[in-house]
Amino acid sequence: MLATLTGTWWAWVILGFALGVLEVLAPGFIFLGFAIGAVVTGVLVGIGIPAGPAALILVFAVVSVVAWLVLRRTMGVREGQVKIWDRDINDKP
Which whole-number Å values give the CA distances from 73 to 37, 70, 83, 86, 90, in the listed order? Predict the structure, then answer.
């Protein structure tokens, strides 16, 4: 069953959209990288790239990590944006 599902393009795209919705609920560019990986894998399966389930999962993993790194580099913490806490919330004023 897993081999059949991994070879179906729309299953990858639906997984990508579900992960995109999860990213909206828990922002941080974590699930967005996985969503991009799933959609790219779905597009590759859809255009007819022949690959087995192991190869598709490898493509998904590699594209997800690359997408996450690109998102982290472009939209993550920028240099000079470090928050320095000078007092604790539990300290009395």
Answer: 17, 5, 18, 27, 34
pLDDT along the chain (93 residues), means of 10: 74 93 84 94 90 89 93 74 72 70
End-to-end alpha-carbon separation of the chain, Å?
62
The Cα 80–Cα 92 span in angstroms is 29
Helix, strand, or coil here: 82? coil
Instruction: Write down the domain spans for the chain.
Output: 2-75
Specify the pTM.
0.75
Whole-angstrom CA distances from 36 to 27, 60, 69, 71, 88 are: 15, 9, 12, 10, 39
User: Which tokens belong to 35?
Assistant: 């969503």
